Amino acid sequence: MSVVEHIRGGLVVSCQAYGDEPMNRPEVMAAVAQSAVRGGACAIRARGVADLEAVREAVDVPVIGLDKIGDHGVFITPTLENALMIAATGCEVVALDGTGRPRPDGLSLAETVAGLKQRFPTTLVMADCATTEEARAAVEAGADLVGTTLAGYTQDRAMTDGPDLAVLAEICASVGIPVIAEGRYATAEHVRQALGHGAHAVCVGSAITHPERITRALLAELTSGPA
């Protein structure tokens, strides 16, 4: 079964930790990924060479790999060099910034996709986009999948309270490739809505795999709610 067919209608779980977080260790991320797969995840999204190598060895479902360099501008697998390093870990899909913003290495999105596919012809490319126009451009650039990952995280589209289902519906109606709904999806109802709007699969991260944020959110709700 192809990767695209394997993830159809499924839940992709993003397993990522950052900075000095106690979970930010490859063996921990691999264990989190294993737990997600045992729970039914159809694929894992993970970050960084070390984590990806550990996750790839730990699970037998497709892995969407990426890198993050910095925290502003184009920072999701921002260069062709980053993309090649991620592909070399054995992940089936490489996710990268699919916006029209300038890339650090000066290459266009199309040049990045072509360079990656030249070295790794069987690796799929997922373009993380913010707008419908970017999703269309990503298809023209050769992307195999489109994600709504950056909707609300660039100046081109305001952030919604919860997932941006409107842009998801627009993109699904505008492109002829699978669309992965991602970005502030946190509940079963969000997942149902995304699939109902045409998403090929849905990616959920912090709501499943980030206990620090989950704990903070729960405590914040307790302290702000009625006594």
TrEMBL record:
<keyword id="KW-0119">Carbohydrate metabolism</keyword>
<dbReference type="InterPro" id="IPR013785">
    <property type="entry name" value="Aldolase_TIM"/>
</dbReference>
<comment type="pathway">
    <text>Amino-sugar metabolism; N-acetylneuraminate degradation; D-fructose 6-phosphate from N-acetylneuraminate: step 3/5.</text>
</comment>
<dbReference type="GO" id="GO:0047465">
    <property type="term" value="F:N-acylglucosamine-6-phosphate 2-epimerase activity"/>
</dbReference>
<dbReference type="GO" id="GO:0006053">
    <property type="term" value="P:N-acetylmannosamine catabolic process"/>
</dbReference>
<protein>
    <recommendedName>
        <fullName>Putative N-acetylmannosamine-6-phosphate 2-epimerase</fullName>
        <ecNumber>5.1.3.9</ecNumber>
    </recommendedName>
</protein>
<dbReference type="GO" id="GO:0005975">
    <property type="term" value="P:carbohydrate metabolic process"/>
</dbReference>
<comment type="function">
    <text>Converts N-acetylmannosamine-6-phosphate (ManNAc-6-P) to N-acetylglucosamine-6-phosphate (GlcNAc-6-P).</text>
</comment>
<comment type="similarity">
    <text>Belongs to the NanE family.</text>
</comment>
<dbReference type="GO" id="GO:0019262">
    <property type="term" value="P:N-acetylneuraminate catabolic process"/>
</dbReference>
<keyword id="KW-0413">Isomerase</keyword>
<dbReference type="GO" id="GO:0005829">
    <property type="term" value="C:cytosol"/>
</dbReference>
<dbReference type="Pfam" id="PF04131">
    <property type="entry name" value="NanE"/>
</dbReference>
<dbReference type="InterPro" id="IPR011060">
    <property type="entry name" value="RibuloseP-bd_barrel"/>
</dbReference>
<dbReference type="InterPro" id="IPR007260">
    <property type="entry name" value="NanE"/>
</dbReference>
